[in-house]
Structure of Formate--tetrahydrofolate ligase:
Amino acid sequence: MAWDATKLKDWQIAEEAEKNMPTVEELVEKLNLEKDELIPYGRTPKVDFLKMMERLKDKPDGKYIEVTAITPTPLGEGKTTTTLGLIEGLAKRGQNVGGAVRQPSGGPTMNIKGTAAGGGNALLIPMTEFSLGLTGDINDIMNAHNLCMVALNARMQHEANYTDEELAKRGLKRLDIDPKNVEMGWVIDYAAQGLRNIIIGIGGKKDGFQMQSKFGIAVGSELMAILAVAKDLPDLRERIGKIIVAYSKTGQPVTTRDLEVDGAMTAWMRNTINPTICYSAEGQPVMVHAGPFANIAIGQSSVIADRLGLKMFDYHVTESGFAADIGFEKFWNVKARLGGLKPNVSVLVATIRALKMHGGGPQVVPGRPLPEEYTKENLELVEKGCANLLHHLNIIKKSGIVPVVCVNGFYTDTEAEINLIKKIVREAGARCAHSDHWLNGGDGALELADAVMDACKEESQFKCLYPLEMPLRERVELIAKEVYGADGVDWAPEAEAKAKRFESDPYYADFSTMMVKTHLSLSHDPTLKGVPKGWRLPIRDVLVYGGAKFLCPMAGAISLMPGTGSDPAYRRIDVDTKTGKVMGLF
Amino acid sequence: MAWDATKLKDWQIAEEAEKNMPTVEELVEKLNLEKDELIPYGRTPKVDFLKMMERLKDKPDGKYIEVTAITPTPLGEGKTTTTLGLIEGLAKRGQNVGGAVRQPSGGPTMNIKGTAAGGGNALLIPMTEFSLGLTGDINDIMNAHNLCMVALNARMQHEANYTDEELAKRGLKRLDIDPKNVEMGWVIDYAAQGLRNIIIGIGGKKDGFQMQSKFGIAVGSELMAILAVAKDLPDLRERIGKIIVAYSKTGQPVTTRDLEVDGAMTAWMRNTINPTICYSAEGQPVMVHAGPFANIAIGQSSVIADRLGLKMFDYHVTESGFAADIGFEKFWNVKARLGGLKPNVSVLVATIRALKMHGGGPQVVPGRPLPEEYTKENLELVEKGCANLLHHLNIIKKSGIVPVVCVNGFYTDTEAEINLIKKIVREAGARCAHSDHWLNGGDGALELADAVMDACKEESQFKCLYPLEMPLRERVELIAKEVYGADGVDWAPEAEAKAKRFESDPYYADFSTMMVKTHLSLSHDPTLKGVPKGWRLPIRDVLVYGGAKFLCPMAGAISLMPGTGSDPAYRRIDVDTKTGKVMGLF
C-alpha cells in the first residue's frame, strides 16, 4: 500500500500518489458539495468561500485539532508530515477528516529547507503545484504589496517635484511623508539577503524619490497576516485600507487609503480569499491557505480555511508554524481569539533528533551529515532533551486545549528511546503516541489517530493567556515569562518609547500582540537549546500592522528577510522537457 | 445587440458580456477539441499546447492576419480594440475565427494608460482576470527571473566570504563575477521609477554583496522574449540555460547555467508555455500569451499561440505592439522568421486623432482633455498627418505582406475626414476600411472584415528585410534607413565596441536584432511626429539576450522601467465586497 520512502525521493512518491488523486468531480461527490462551490484551477480547485459558508453556516462544527512542535532543529521536525499523517490515520479509522496547511514560500523551497509538503507517505500532492506558486495567492499578495510601495515612492517624487497648486490640479493634497520614518518595505518571495537594505531612487528628478528602503520576504507581508485573520471579504477590504505605510513629517500615519491604493490592492487580492484544495498522499482533502514563517510573521493557516474545514469535516486538522512558544502562542492568543475559534486538541510533534539536540547533542547544520549522536541510541541525550518537550507541553496546558504528544518516527529511533519519551510524557499527565506515517502513511499513524480521537472526548477549557485590555508591555512580560520562560523583558529605549505611545493611544487598544522571535530556541538566541534559564528577552523595536491590527515586538537580532545559503535547492531542480514534470523538489 | 459604449464604462460592458461567455465545455464543443486539451483555471482555461499541437500537426494552416498601427498618441490608437473588432466582424460573416493578444502588464494597467483589453463592444473578457494577472504567466516570469538574481547576488556574497577550498566543499567553482559588468537586473511588473537605479547589499558580510543594481518592468524580461519566440518546451528549456547574467572579471559570460539556476527557473515557467483562452465581447476565442512593450521588449503575441491559432481557426488574427516601425518590424524580422510563419495580411490601424497629431495638432497629454483640433473636423491636419500613415504602409509593403488600412472609428470622426483618408490610401494602392467596432461590435466591423477576407485572396510575398548573415551594424543601418527613415546611424563608442565584438564572435552569428526605441515617433525622439526628416539614429548601448538569442541596440534615452504618473489608474480601482467584482478598470 505505502510507497518505499527509504528508496524513493519525495517528488517520486508524489508522482505516484498523484495517479490516484481525486478529480474535482470526485471531490464534489465525496464531500457532498455543490458543483459551483469548487472553482477549478488546473488540478487544484479553489473553494468558493462565500458560497460554501453561506450554505453550511448553520451546520455544527467538527472537532478542531491543531498541530505544533517542540523547538525544532534547523531541518524542521515534520510538523506538516505529522499533520498529513494524522489526517491519513483518521481516514483509516473511517472518519470524515480534512485539514488546512500553509502555502510554502519560494524562499525555503529554493533554499536549504526545501518545500513544506511533508514527506514520505505523508506528503501533500500535487507537490509541484503546491511548491511552485499554487493558485497564485503569494503572487497576489506580492503584487498588492508592491503596488503600495510604487504608490508611496511615486507620491514622494511628485510631492517633491510639484507645488501644492500643481498637486491640487491632480486632486492630490500634500501628505508630506517623512523619508526617515517609513514603516513598509518592498517584498519578494525569496531569501534575498542582498535586498535587505537598499538605496532606491538614484538618478534624476523623474527617477523616483531617493531614499533608503528594504525588501522583506513576501510571505511576511502584513497582507499575509491580514489574509490569515480576515473573517470575510468586507473584513479583508477594510483591513487593507488601514495599513500604515509611513508617517508624515509631523508624525501622522500615512495609510494605504491616504495613498488611494487600497481598492486596487484589494483587487489584486480578490481571489486569495478562497482557499485551494490539495490532498494528502492517500487522497484526503487539505486546504492550503495563508503562509509560513511563524517567527517573523503570523505563520498560521487561515481563519477562513479553518472555518470552512470545521463545517466540511468531522475532524479538521490545522497547523501553526514552528514550535509551541512562537507558532502555537499566536494560534492561541491571536488567531483563535480573532476568529472566535475553540480548538479541542493540540498535537505536539517531537523527533528524537531534536530531543537529542536539546539534551546537549552537537550542532545540526543543514546540508551537512548528522553526527553519530543522532543516528545511534542515546537515552541520556533523549532524557535531558525532554525538558524542552515538557516546557512546550506546559504552554499548551495553559491554553486549556488538550495536548497529545506525537513522536514523529525515524528509522534510527530505538524501542528504548521511544518508550522513555512515552514514560516521561505520561508522567506529565498527557497522551503520547509514536507514529510511522513517513514510512507507512495512515497505517503508520493509527496509534496517533486513536490518541487524538480519545483526547477529543475531553472537553476543551480553551482560554486566552491575557485579555485584550492588558497594556502592551504587560502582555509582552507575560508571554516572555509564562511562555518563553524568561526572567523578564529589556526594552531598548526607542522600542519602549514606541510601546508607551501605543499604550496611551486608544486607536491601538484592541490590537493583537504578534511576537517576532527566533523559532530555534525558547529564547531570542537561536544557539540556546533545551530550556534556557536566567535570561531576559530584549525588545529592540515594535512594528505596527495597522490593517492586521497587530503590534509586533521584535526580540533579538532577527531579520524579516532570510538569506540564501551556499548550497541551495535550486541547484537540483529541473523540468523533464518531454513530460513537463518538475524533478528534484524535496 | 451591442451595448451602449457611449454611456457604459468598459468594465460595465465586460460585466454584461461575461454573462454570455462560453463555458469550457461549450468551447470544447464549438472548436471540436478533445476535453483534456483545455485545462480549466477559473473562467479562463489554458490550452495544453503539447497535446493539441500533436493532434493537429498535419492540419493545414488558416489565414494569418497581423494587426499593427501608425505612430500612436500616448493614449494608444485601439490596436487591441481593432484586433477584437476584426475577429467579431469575421465571425459575423460566418467564419471560423480566433486570435492571439498579449497579456497586459500591471505597469500600464495601474498607471495612466489602463488595461490593454480593448474597449467598447470590442473588448476582451473576462476583463478582470485578463487585467489582473490572468493565469499567472507574468508572475511566473517574474519569479523565475528574480530567482536568477537571488542566485547571482548570493553567489557573489559566498565567493567574497569563502576561500576556493570552502567553495569546493559545496561543489562550487569560483565564477569571479565582475560587479561592474552585470547584464541583468531584477524585475517587478509595475512602472516603478524609484527602482530604476539602486544600491543593494548594504549591511554586514551576510547581507548580500554590495553593488549597484537595477529593476526593469517584468514584461520586458528576457524570459518574456524567450516565451514569445520559443517553439516548444525543449526550446524554452535550452534558451533559459543560455541567458547571460553577468561577466567574469576576465570578460567571460556568466550564464544561468553557470549559476545552476536554469532548471529551477524553467520549473517556475513550466505552465507559461500553455496560452490562456479568453474571449471577445461577442464570444470568439482569443488566446492570451506573452507580453507588451514592443518599444523596450519584443512585444509580440507568441509563436506558440499563433501556431495553435493557425491550426484551430480558418482566420487567425494576431497583434504586434505599437506601430509598424517598431512592433511590426519585430514581427517581420524576428518573430515570423524564428517561428517559420508566413503572414497573409497586415491591418494598419489609424485614428483620426493620431493623424491630426502627426499633421501638426497640439500635444496629446494623458489625463488631460483633448484640444479642440481633435474634436472638430480638420481636413488639413488629417491630410498632412497621412504622411505618417503612408510611411507605415510602405514598411508593410516591404515585407511582402498584403496591407489593409483600418480607420478605427471615433464618434467625432466626420464623413469628409474618413473619405479623405480612404482616397489617400487607395491612391497608394492599398485597401482601406472604416470600422465602428467600438460602437457596434462585429456589426460595425463588416467593412473591415470584408476588406481583410478580400486581401487574403492575394498571395503573400513574405520575405525578411535582411538575411541573418548580415553583420549587426549593417542590419541596424538598414532598419534605420528603410524602416525608420533615418539618414544613418551614430554609434556611441562603447556601443560600437560592443557591436564589433559581437560581429567578430561566431557565437552571435545567428542572433536576431531586436531594436529598443520609442514608439511615439518614427525616430528615437518621442516629440518628433509625422515623418521626421534629416536625422540620424543614435545607438548608445547593445543589450545581449543570450537565451532569446537577441542583440538589442538601444536608440536614444529610453528606459527599461517606465514611471508612474501623478494621477494613476489605481486611484479609481476597487472591489465590490458583496459580489467580489472589480470596479474601475478601463
